[in-house]
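FORM 7B: Structural annotation worksheet

SECTION A. Query
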Amino acid sequence: MKNNFLISFILILNSWSMWSQTEPVVTLELKQTPVTEVLQQIEDQTDVKFYFLEDWIQDLKATGTYQKARLQVVLEEIFANTLINYYIMDRQRVVLTENVRIHSKLPPGFFGNEEKKEDQNAQAVPSLINPGRVADNGAMETVRIGRANGDAQSSFTLSGRITSKESGEPLPGIAVVVRGRNDLGAVSDINGLYELKLPPGENILETKSITTATFQKRVLIFNNGRLDIGLGENLEMLQEVTLDAQRKENIREANTGVNQINVQEIKTVPLVLGERDILKVATTLPGITTAGEGAAGYNVRGGKADQNLILLDDAVIYNPSHFFGIFSALNPFTSGEVKIYKGNMPAEYGGRLSSVFDISTRDATTQKFSGEASIGPVTGNLALEFPVIKDKAGLLVGGRSTYSDWILRSLDEESLKNSTAMFYDVVAKYNHILDEKSEIEATGYFSRDEFSITSDSIYSYSNRLGSLRYNRTLNDRHDASLIVSNSDYEFQIDYEGFSGFDNFSSAYNINETEVKIHLNYRHNETHQFEYGISGKLYNIQPGEVRPLGADSAVDLFRIPKERGLETALFATDNFTVNEKLLINIGARYSQFAALGAGTENVYATGFPKSEATVIERKTYGKNEVMETYGGLEGRISARYFLWPSFSVKGSFNNSLQYIHTLSNNTTISPTDTYKLSNGNIEPQKGSQYSLGLYKNFDNDLYEMSIETYFKKVRNMLDFKVGAQLFLNEAVETEVLQGEGKAYGVEILLKKSRGALNGWVGYSYNRSLIRLDGEYSEERVNNGEYFPSNFDKPHDFSFVGNYKLTKRFSFSTNFVYQTGRPVTFPVGQYTFNGRDYVYYSERNAYRIPDYYRLDLSLNIEGNHKIKKLAHSFWNISVYNVLGRNNPYSVFFVTEGGEVRALQSSIFSIPVPTITYNIKF
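SECTION B. Predicted structure
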């Protein structure tokens, strides 16, 4: 590099005479001809002599036909896509340089006192290397990106992926900085990707991380380009290691209501039976609750459980729970990033009103075999990683299973001998870097549950999904992804009586397939665009009953299948107005078509829907459009910095939901079924306004946020009193569509580092619904707003971890919630000689408040660098106070009296010990 600078300076001083004679011409026939031979042919035909280092051009080849072509035209074409520049001194000498460019004049202001003027005769605006920095780092490796071509562009984009040299896994949270430029830098994201703007010429890049070895490289950049970085481990003994890949993200990004869960940190949170549970931890965040302990659904900001879009590697998972909600169906050993959108949802997501749970499986190692395992009171977990192609491809396989079946059979209780209670789930992910611009990721997942306790019925349900993602870098500004996914959920009840005469099997199934193209376009520092298109095909079997066994007299009955096609176009602009104001504005246009084959009832106008008011049954052929819906969904959010550590955000979004869960139970359960919008059931429509303040304290050690929101929903589904929803061919006669509204305030205080860390969350949320139909049977509570089944105004949680030493820590989890609404009997009356119970208005009372305290002791293995595996013990007690929290309240009539009973899931302290090992 010193030689290049010296050559340039000498040539400038000696180039006093301009080339005034006739430019040489050459005739060449080139076909993948080495450039060294091309230059020799030019020298043979002319008086020109070339000066260069052969190492620069030894791998270059040229193709083309030239008839009496000017020398400068030939040189421009053969060096067009290379790092080689040329300088014509006079008609007999041509000097080649690698990456740098020689100039005929010094630039204006070179000596600091000249008036700056444009030099029309100069070949380029020079980018000179700082001699002092080069002398300081003479042995540093140099990377050349682009060719110095005189482009006066002020900056270029450098991007790439940071990975571990040992495992090949992406490294998040690695700082990439430019030496001597405090204003330039970037931090790698969860996939190890980084991007920063660099001025043309020389830049000294460094990475900063406690856990990785030092990386330094000189970059000569004259165009947009890519630089992947492999980092080795830093094996120095450290006092403490803290990684925060999302530092300041909470105050910087524009979206409101976004929460992220660090999967590695939740291992210390004490939960039921010692299970590490991603979604249970999510319920400790403000605005996310469940209808009760053991409920298999999640209510986000007062929304119904079916209004949440839960994704695992871009594929929908319909029932993310085991044992009807006691455990999560997501394996924490294989999960990577978890991002929850409960305020403003990005435009690429649609089809749900309340939230998006975007869960990704982490990439497998491409370096060496590794694994993680745990064993607890009722479950075992194992995850293994295999390098398939070193540095390029890896396979991650994880599986969990319970051995509660074995426990039940071992108990000295005859009534439990034939019981079953089991679940398992398996997940596999294959990731493959095809080249520097493209990669593929493929994920498969399957889970199954079976449950029967002293019963003649076995309940079983399963989730199956698969996704394939192809990522491609189109150019320095454009990235694209093609995503194909399929999801399947099935529920089944097998009933076996003593005689076998009435044995039956009942089931329902939902299957969906989606194709999506998603693109990112970095137009400039002001505008960052995301856009794409998606299509989703639904296939639903709403329910069937079939005979079970040869002796069964049950007749086969099946509700006709439902099919629907949902398509969407979406676009988002992340608009940086100035240093303080960031606006994220997006739009999504979705359309839904209910498809045949099928039959649809037409009801008489002016009368409530019932079998008696059917005036026509329309029949549609296969793939014939039965009904269409659609509309524009707006997504806009903004962030404004009041000062660098304090921002205010606001957002608005509206959404359409074309699929519904039908249930007349208080909590979402496997016996629910699904229904697509059609001519009799309209899509749900929702809109939400959010406003929040976000503040970081003490060098980002503390994060605090206060958000308030208001949500409005139309066509929200509920049910008539005594409704029969399952196996009903005219289910629209049993449901009501009304209005819903929810509002509240959420407060979150989080401490991410230090001996004491954790978070405190509080929310005041109201969720109300109004069913005010034209007819009395379609009207509930006189058409007034009343609390929904999951209305819990006060919700407080505290999750804390205190490190006694590097190996020993205590953790606690405390939860308090207002009891959910319930309908109580308030009197009795006699009619025609029979006694009847008179019930209150719907949801007029509440069950007792819920509170629970959990404690755990966490013991890390020793921290020796060289050892076979790392171990971790978790000793926890769930529900330390022995609180008998009611799961539900129900009523029975005994001896002419109505008695209230309550059921609880865990009414006593539950101690557990879990052992984890990582190798």
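SECTION C. Observations
Confidence is low (pLDDT under 50) at residues 1-21, 113-138, 235-245. The chain is about 5% helix and 55% strand.

SECTION D. Sign-off
Analyst initials: ____
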